[in-house]
Amino acid sequence: MEKKIPEEITGLAKKLDCSKEGLSEKDALLRREKYGSNELKETKRHTPLKIFLDQFTGNFILYVLIAAGVISYIAHEIINFYVILAIVAFVVALGFIQEYRAERALQALKSIVRQKVRVLRDNRLQDIDSGQLVPGDVVLLETGDKVPADAKVWETLHLKLDESMLTGESESVLKSDGEDVYSGTHVVSGKCKALVYATGMSSRIGKIAGMIQEETEETPLQKRIKHLSKTMSIIVFAVAFVITAVGMAQGAGFFAILIVALAVAVSGVPEGLPLTLTLSLVLGMQRLAKRNAIMRSLLAVETLGNVDIICTDKTGTLTKNEMTVEKIFADGKIISVTGSGYSLSGQFLESERNIDVSESSALKILLRGALLCNNASLKKEGHSVSVIGDPTEGALLVLAEKAGMTKENAESEYPRIEEIMFTSERKMMTTIHSGRKTPAFTKGAPEFVLNHCNFILEKGEIIRLDMKKRREISDINNQMASKALRVLAIAYKEMKKTEDGKTEKDLVFLGLVAMKDPPREEVKAAIEACRDAGIKVIMITGDNENTAKAIAREIGLLSDKESVYNHSIRKNEKLKKIVEDHVITGEELESLSDEEFDTVVDSIAVYARNMPENKLRIVKALKKKGYVIAMTGDGINDAPAIRNADVGIAMGIKGTDVTRETAEMVLADDNFVTIIEAIRGGRAIFENIQKFTYYLISTNFAEVVLISLGIFILGFELLPLIALQILFLNLVTEEMPAVALGTDPPRRDIMKGSMKGRTNSLLSGKRFLRLLPLVLLMAGAALFVYNMYLPEGIEKARTMALLTMISFEVFNAFNFKSLDKSVFSSDVFGNKWLLLAISGTYAATVLVLYVPVFQHAFSTVPLGIADWFVSSLIAMSVIALVEIQKAFERIMNFLGLPKTMPSR
């Protein structure tokens, strides 16, 4: 007898003008022209052209460099023009290559083979590409399939789906005839027919994808670079304007003034900064990739270091996403089971004593029932084990294997002959097997299974299940459930033959099995490291409140410290409870106004039973408070929040394509600890950026002051340095130490203390004033040397000024190896790249001073040993000055007074 088609299916088929037998190829083609392909539009895909154009976004120093190149061309300084052009090209090319490689790495994480689906076309079953599906198609789904489009199901057989990518709920969902299934979810067990009604961007996943198609915000580093560029540009152009005005007043020619303006622009703009910044970020990007963190954007690398809050999903990130049986109640005993995840090794312990499963008939039969009343299977590849089917049923298979029992052997001895399906109303599943006495095994929710049991197996005997035993079992079930364990009951019955309608009556209770998705072992230490670093971790999950709380306490996310709340919260019992618990459910969140939520958002550590729009609201509320937010996730439900976070972090293994394409960082190992390592790397990168930025700015502004003083004191004709010499300083001799400073390894205590308040800008007025004594010392000393050698000829004077500035750059690099520690207490020789850079700096200087072709190009003359000694002796003064400043800084810190040196 043919099963009745649900009204939901017949009504939908009529609305879509199709048949439950599927479409014809001709109809499918016409519908594809109308609805388009069953694919998501990748409007934000990182194409090579977009990656190339992104290299210019917000990088104003590049714009200033281009302007300097134009001035060089107009002033007929062709060598300068080509040098500047080469710098711009190299910086852009380097950034493009690295981000393009990251994009390729991301694409490699995607499935190589496109999904195939079984569909009814022209009254026959066909395998087609999922992109060809259209509304009206009838598809056939079974265990392991990915749902290719939104559809309604019928002819379901034990159909359960993993919808965690949409709901965040880790438990699989049972589906009945007439219910909806959604694109991107997975069939964990059973099979069905499904009538497609929405494809591509019209599907639920497509609508969420559409929510995230908007312009990206600037990263903190982009904002700092823009601020730095504007500050430096204002200073440089102000100086150039004053010099131009003075030159015109003195009657200087147009090209003479233009060349001087070029010299000021070249000296004031750190041409090496974008190159050094790009190299530093590229090296950081590569280091993070080796630690399984794939960065899609260079600028996002540094943003990681400024993260204040990590909003993370629970399942698979903080936990293993591997249900594990931890407790068993059987034979009147509570038995602990060791082992975590899908590892097949473990012990059965009673009061810390190892027990033999074969000694307890109730436990042995319980494990046999766990194997037989089960539709999942284990896939073993070497030491790796994965579950095909429902994770809960997979946990039962792993449990039995720890006792040396396998599903294959059990099914060989007791072949299945019938199954009574699990339904949401019955909350039980029963399987009947041939073999001795025709055994039937039942598993399900304890309260439902107990209602069908009249007996219990204890100490090898079947006895009547009285009220006292029922209360004992119920109490133990409640105790296990209160610890966020998912509890199943297992019962059995022996029959002479199958008993229609009576199979599930008078069952023999065998025991309870309690399981949970265990936290990753390393997560607790990682959360403690976050706490030390001033980073708050927030868990956002679709799981229920009790489960979320239990996991949060186990990993150290919730503490028992006393809550602090203001007067307005104290008067509001609802808000007071949230602050005291540090936990809020999605329902409670939706009941709060924006003002109420803003009041408590700082106190919440766990969000349970949350929907996608809640996650987005959480991120926006935290950002409004001024926090730098990292949002992790794997499902489509996470994509809008990831899109709005400062750093979106997607899972590379189980994450969806939409989420990966939205995020700035992809975790190749889906491990929370990788995020902490990435933040450590991000902090190191930012500190290194500060080091070489201060280093470059101090030397560059020393050049501006040197040129300006030279003009005002000696006149236009006696510039201390010409433009090409300044370019040599900026791009060769100071660039090599700057790049080396960008490779400094992280401080041991870099994860101690918050970054809040340390990183408002790369160059504020206050910080520039702190560098001013250093700038004046270098400029004044170089001008002194220039003036001292001027009687020996302008070329020698300029050569000595050049050598003195190079010597200053070398010694100054050691000053900025640490922003607060003395050069004599820091590991001066710990950075081999800095030593190599200094060697390279002196090698390049020798070429410019002693090789004729370079002498001609740079207008230099050879110098003697005494000249080198003079420049080195004078340059060492920067060490003394900065040591005095750092000592004064330490005294001020000790006394609790404001700082005077650039801080981290």
What keyword list fits this structure?
904 residues; alpha+beta; Calcium-transporting ATPase, transmembrane domain; Rossmann fold; 3 domains; 11-stranded mixed beta sheet; 34 helices; 49% helix; elongated
Strand content: 15-25%
The beta-strand count equals 28
Per the CATH scheme, the topology name of the largest domain is: Calcium-transporting ATPase, transmembrane domain
Shape: elongated
Count helical runs. 34
CATH class (first level) name of the largest domain: Mainly Alpha
First-residue to last-residue Cα separation: 78 Å
Q: On the 0-100 scale, what is the average pLDDT?
A: 82
- Helical residue percent band: 40-55%
When the domains are counted, the total is 3
- Unreliable stretches: 108-114
Classification by helices and strands: alpha+beta
CATH superfamily of the largest domain: Calcium-transporting ATPase, transmembrane domain
Just name the CATH architecture of the largest domain: Up-down Bundle
Written description of the protein model:
The chain has 34 helices and 28 strands. It is α+β, with helices and mostly antiparallel strands and 904 residues long. It has three domains: 221-293 and 678-895, Up-down Bundle (Calcium-transporting ATPase, transmembrane domain); 304-318 and 521-675, Rossmann fold; 324-516, Calcium-transporting ATPase, cytoplasmic domain N. The longest helix is centred in the C-terminal third of the chain and has 43 residues, at 672-714. The protein is elongated, with a radius of gyration of 35 Å.
